[in-house]
Amino acid sequence: MDVTALNPPPSPDEVFRYFQTLPLPELPTKQQPPGNGLVGLPVIFYTDGPTTQTFSLDIRGFTVDIVARATGFTWHTGDGADLTTTSPGAPYPDHTISHDYGSGSYTASLTTTWTASFSIDGGPTVPVPGSTTTEGPPVTFDVLQARPVLTNPFD
Q1: pLDDT of residue 155
Q2: What per-residue string of b and e applies to 122-145 under the rule 16 or more CB within 10 Å gives b?
Q3: In whole angstroms, how far apart are CA 153 and each of 5, 117, 147, 148?
Q4: pTM as predicted
């Protein structure tokens, strides 16, 4: 008797349900300059967290290897704008994600979209249907207006 019919391998939809519960990293929002920004100079955003994670699960006696990848990044700038990218960005001078602000205090954060592929018992790799997201910790900073001040150099 073939017992495979009694315990079939996990379906892609079943793997997706497990994928949604994995402890994926909540990628931090990094900004440059660190601390306060200046009006007229863009604030650079990036994350330096891991963008690939591998998990090995036992699902009903089958070994399921899941490789999760961060494939989308939504930068919530704190002033109502959202910047959507497929890149985690980079610090200066290789930066690709920046935003201009007026003076004020802002709280920015990052939503990361994760997709994955999986294999069962070392078999072929197939995509996990669907995606899931994680919310990174926010970062708060001030953007200041610089004002020139004339001084007497002989004082």
Answers
A1: 65
A2: eeeeeebeeebebebeebebebee
A3: 89, 65, 18, 15
A4: 0.88
